[in-house]
Amino acid sequence: MALSHHSASEWEMNPTPEAPTAPETLRESGLSQGFLCDMILRTIYTRGAMLGRDLAQFLCLPFKVIRDSLKFLKDEKALQVDGGDLVGEVSYRFSLTDLGRKRAQEAMEFCAYIGPAPVPLEDYVEQCYRQTVVGLNCYPEALKAPFSHLVLKEEMFNAIGPAIVSGRSVFIYGPPGNGKTAIARAIGEFMNNVGGSIYVPYAFLADENIITVFDPSLHVVDDTATDGEEDTDAAVRRLLTTGSYDRRWVRIRRPVIVTGGELTLSMLDLRYFSDSNFYQAPIHFKANGGVFLIDDFGRQQCSPRELLNRWILPLEDRHDFLTVASGKKFQVPFEQLIIFSTNLDPKQLVDDAFLRRIRHKVGVTAPPRDVYERIFQYHCRRLGMNYDPSAVDYLYERYYNRGRAPRASDCRDLLEIVQSICRYRRQPVHLTRDLIAEAAASFIAEFQ
C-alpha cells in the first residue's frame, strides 16, 4: 500500500515551522545596497528591461526593499525609466544606460549569479534549528503505512521507530537481498510524507559568497503551500504587503537524498563555478532537515575510512564546515538523519570509535521460513498469481536446506521469472512446483 493513497491531512502530524517573514527594509534583508545594486544590474543586463514589480518578483524581494537601490542606480545614471502608468514606481520599466551596461559587465565579472536574492547565513542557520529532524513525532500506526509493502519481524520494526525519533544516525547492515535498501527508503518515505514541510533558501550569503541550496532535482516542492498561480494584481499586492512570506525561501517536503557507489569525497565539499564565481552546496548539505542515505556503503570510490573520517565531527557535534576558494571556513548545521546501508561486514568497514557515534544499529538477516513464506505470498498477490505452498517446499528442499541462505529478494525475483515464463508460453500467469523449479534453475543454480 503506497502512502499516497492517504490524504496529507490523515498522516501529517508534524507541523511545518513558521515561514520566514519577508523583510521590510534592506537592512532586514541582510543585504548591502552595493550587493543588491549589483544583483539588479546583472538581472537587467541578462534579461533586458523589466518592470519594477517583475524585477522584485524575480529577486523574490518586496518592491519596497529594492526601491531605494533602484533610485540610487537611477540617480547614478546607471538605470533609466522607459515608461510606467498610474500604479507608481512598481510599474516603471527600468533599463540600463551605457554606464549601467558597463557597471553590469563589471558586476558579472565579480559574480555571475542571477536569481532569487540570497538570505544571510545567520538566517539559514536559525531556520535549520527550527526544523531539525530530532524529536519528530513518530508512532507505530503512522510508521506502518510506508512499511506496509515490507514483511518485517516485529522487533526490527520496533527498532526503526526510535531511530527516526532520535534524528541521529542509523547503520543498517546484513547480507544482500534482505531489504536493507527498502527499509532505508521506507524511512525516507515516512520522513518525506509525514515529517511535515520545511523551508530552504534558494541561496544564502556567507561573507559575500553566494551558495545555492534549493535543488529542484532533489527537493520536492510542497504544492499544498499554494493555492495555484497568482494573477498579476495578487502578485503586486503581495509585493506591497507587510508581514508576508519571504519568497527567497522554498517550502519543500523534508528531503530524502540517496547516494550509492558514485559518492566521492569531492561531492561533500562546495562546488565552485570558477567562471561564475558562486558555489553550489554539497549533496549532504541539501539533506538538512531530512534524510541522507548512503546505500552500498563500503563500495564508494574512496575508502570507507576516508568517508567516515569526513563525518566524525558532524555526527558528534551536529555541525559541519564549508570552505570557500579563499580558504575561509563557515560553520553550518548538520541537521539530518543519516543512514548507512551495507552488505559488508561492519567490523571490516569501521572501528569501534566510529560505531560509538552511530546511535542505532539495525541488523537485517536472512528471513526465517515463516517470514519468507509471508514475503512469498505478498509477491504472489502483487503479481496476481496463486500461492502454491509446494513451490516454497521445493526451494527449501533443493536450495535453502542445503547451504544457500534464503533471501527476501528471491521471492520477488523468482516469481517474476515465473511470470515471464508464463507470458512467453502464452499461458495464464500461475504458480506450480515445476515452474518455480524452472525459474530457480536459471536464477539460483549458477550461484551454488
Labels describing this entry:
alpha/beta, Arc Repressor Mutant, subunit A, elongated, Helicase, Ruva Protein, domain 3, five-stranded parallel beta sheet, five-stranded mixed beta sheet, 3 domains, 448 residues, Rossmann fold, 18 helices
Describe this structure in words.
Residues 15-24 have a biased composition (Low complexity). InterPro entries: 26S_Proteasome_ATPase, AAA+_ATPase, P-loop_NTPase. The chain has 448 residues and is α/β, with parallel strands linked by helices. The chain folds into three domains: 3-13 and 125-363, Rossmann fold (3-Layer(aba) Sandwich), CATH 3.40.50; 32-117, Winged helix-like DNA-binding domain superfamily/Winged helix DNA-binding domain (Arc Repressor Mutant, subunit A, Orthogonal Bundle); 369-447, Helicase, Ruva Protein, domain 3. It has helices at 8-11, 26-29, 33-47, 52-59, 63-75, 98-110, 121-130, 140-143, 154-166, 180-194, 232-240, 304-317, 346-349, 352-357, 369-382, 389-398, 408-424, 433-443; strands at residues 50-51, 79-83, 93-96, 119-120, 169-173, 197-201, 203-206, 209-212, 249-253, 256-259, 271-273, 278-280, 291-294, 319-323, 329-333, 337-342, 360-363. Strands 4-7-8-12-11 form a five-stranded mixed β-sheet. A five-stranded parallel β-sheet has the order 10-13-16-5-17, with helices on one face. Strand 11 (271-273) and strand 12 (278-280) form a beta hairpin. Helix 17 (408-424) crosses helix 18 (433-443). The protein is elongated and about 90 Å long. The two termini are 35 Å apart.
